[in-house]
Amino acid sequence: MSKEPTRDELTLSDIDANDKKMIMDAVKNGISRRDMLTVLGAIGIGAAAGGSLFTQAGQAVAATPKKGGSVRFASDLHGPSDTLDPQLFTSTIDYSRGRAIYNSLTQFRDSIVPQPELAEEFSANKAVTQWTFKLKQGVKFHDGSALTADDVIWTMNRHTMDGSKSKAKTLVAGVKEWKKIDSHTVKAIMDAPNADLPAVLATFHFKVLKKDTKDFQAPVGSGPYRLKEFKPGVRSVHVRNDDYWREGGNFDAIEIFAITDSVARTNALLSGDIQLMQALDPKAIKQVEKSPTAKVSSVPSGAYVGVCCLLNSSPGNNQDFVMAMKHLPRRKRMVKSILKNHGTVGNDHPINVAYGPDFCKELPVRDHDPDQAKFHLKKSGISSAELHVAEVAPGITDMCLMVQRDAQKIGLDLKIKKVPNDGYWGAVWMKTPMNVVTWNMRPTANVMLTLAFAPDAPWNDTFWKNERFGKILKEVRGVTDEAKRHEMYCELQRLAHDGSGMVIPMHRNYVDAVAADIHGIPAVPLGALGGAEWPEFAWKA
Questions:
Q1: H or E element: which one contains 85?
Q2: Staple 462 to which of 313, 427, 450, 501, CB 3.0 to 4.6 Å?
């Protein structure tokens, strides 16, 4: 070790490993600053450098995950459609359970850049038409069996086989074949260039299953927690997998359930009944910030809330009515007054600045225009409509009530029918002629548009079928020229902005809340509590 008492810029990485361990162990055992300086002085480190090292060691110890403790996580909705089958996941409560039980080939940690997970390496050929994934050795499922290429290929084929019920099958429809190279190497052979495949495989639906899994009430995964109990619409209980193949899964146990009322959910956090909660109501942000027992987590994202006018039924099958609805929202006011500025203005398509260069900033924002709204409403011949609303995202009911007030001013009797959160995604969304929706951000613009706007997407909220949109969406996956790519994404956003039945007034931050002693939530902007990555990485001080 370099013993220079006059240096005050020493860092822990500058010193000998044995000395670093001595300092860290001493801090963990509660040594005082004064005693630490005495110890460091004995090995030739002066007060200035020693004080800096003591501070660094304290920060490092505080940031080191600890094992132990049990936590309860409350989502904002659940129902009988809750599932542990990854291809059928539809909500944050599903995504969180999936992250506890399973792993994926790739994952997101603190960004939307895919990182290795079960695949310790992944690479593409020059044409980006083939992707090779080398699996990590020594990974075991919860029943003790080893992960192999056969498990991966079986899992991936479930999404593309005839009759597949996968909610994300359109994202991997371009994979012609999953080919086994050896026991721990697989290759995806594409029908066209696709640079997004590793990001796609890191999303919620592509958790790797043990081959031939049939029982999704008690599935076998390779993840950080083993399933102890699962009752759809009620709760699940998970216990730490002590044979996990890497560090992670820091709690002894986690319980996952829902408290659908936002006030009750916040009160449960403040009282200590739960330790993590999804979807903090913006009106409660200041209340949580003032609490000594809880803290707010706000992560900017491309998540959005909207109104769906189904184009295959009245009134959404009248394009003038849809255009009247698109001209009603006071978008800037909604972001300020409803989201408390924890979000950005929407423009009736799902892409915003969070998607970087693929966002079409040139497309003018369609703002509140009562004259245009009245013009289109008169052309439509429609004077009343019913909108089904559940508080599936914080502020979405207030957003609809604001639209309702402005609709009344132009002669539209917009009836708001409030419905329960429980079972909403199975009973109301994509079924009633007008309903609300909230979408998590996806890792790329192409993934987002493919899931929600592609002509063949199972989750095409408004049943908008535009063949040119589908053609460009597929072609742009292989475009590497940034200017050309941006031009193509601008056309996609313009087509959705004008043609779909979606009204998207605002994009929201992920605003969640946790107990003050909960740490390690990743900053992944793809869903609540770090894109639902929290089960592996969160810990309790």
A1: none
A2: 501
Bond preceding residue 315 cis, omega within 30 of 0: yes
Q: Which of 3.10.105.10, 3.40.1280.10, 3.30.420.40, 3.40.640.10 is the CATH number of 304-508?
A: 3.10.105.10
Chain segment 167-188, per-residue pLDDT in tens: 999 899 999 999 999 999 999 9
Q: Domain 103-201 belongs to what architecture? A: Alpha-Beta Complex (3.90)
In contact, 237 and 228? CB cutoff 8 Å = yes
Measured CA to CA, the distance from residue 205 to residue 203 in angstroms comes to 6
Q: Are 241 and 530 in contact, with CB atoms under 8 Å apart? A: no
For residue 355, CA distances in Å to 52, 319, 362 come to 39, 29, 14
pLDDT of residue 14: 67
Round to whole Å and give the CA distance between 46 and 259: 55
The answer to whether the CB of 309 falls within 8 A of the CB of 322 is yes
**Cβ neighbours for 343, distance < 8 A, ≥ 6 positions apart:** 335, 506, 507, 508, 509
Cα 479 → chain centroid: 26
pLDDT tens sequence across 372-428: 999 999 999 999 999 999 999 989 999 999 999 999 999 999 999 999 988 899 999
Instruction: Report how far apart, in Å, the C-alpha atoms of 319 and of each of 370, 399, 416 are.
Output: 17, 22, 21
DSSP assignment letter at 257: E
pTM of the model: 0.78
What is the enclosing helix (H) or strand (E) of 298? strand 294-299
Rounded to whole angstroms, the Cα distance separating 211 from 170 reads 22
Phi then psi for 296, rounded to 5 degrees?
A: -95, 140
Contact 433, 313 (CB under 8 A): yes
Cα-to-chain-centroid distance, residue 67: 25
